[in-house]
Amino acid sequence: VLMGIDVTTLTARRCRDLLAGGEVSATELARAYLDRIAALDDSVQAYLAVDEQGALSAAAAVDAKPRSERLPWEGVPIGLKDVLCVKGMETTCASRILKGYVPPYDATVVSKLRAAGLVFLGKLNMDEFAMGSSTENSAFQTTRNPWDLDRVPGGSSGGSAACVAAAEAPWALGSDTGGSIRQ
Length: 183
Fold this sequence. Notes:
By secondary structure, the protein is of the alpha/beta class.
């Protein structure tokens, strides 16, 4: 809770506005979401990997820049579906086949998000190779609907959906192969 506000309940746009106004730092935002992930994700299982060091380092770099020189969304945290390659961070597509694969490049969308200064919190669970409709077909874990842990979030981007619904990030990137986002 910062300034009497639980920042993890805010939209990405409101986080952006607080950053632009100097009411919150990127490090404070990242720390709040990382703490929320640590508190909840054992039961939700939205994340396959959390990059605490990378998130805090990226947030500190944003905080070191004068606010007048920042890009509009710079410093806002985001979760990324594990189908997206992030240079230097394991990408498994929720499959044991790719366990240990660390891409030497960023996916195009990741490059664009990085250039915009977003803070990557970690990689989100999904159905293996994005082929499924419930996020129960991950090789590693089943993501749970944070509003009812006896249910799943649906879609192969269930980690992304559950992450945002559980306020473990203000927004997340998913994908739609066969109906994921629509489900």
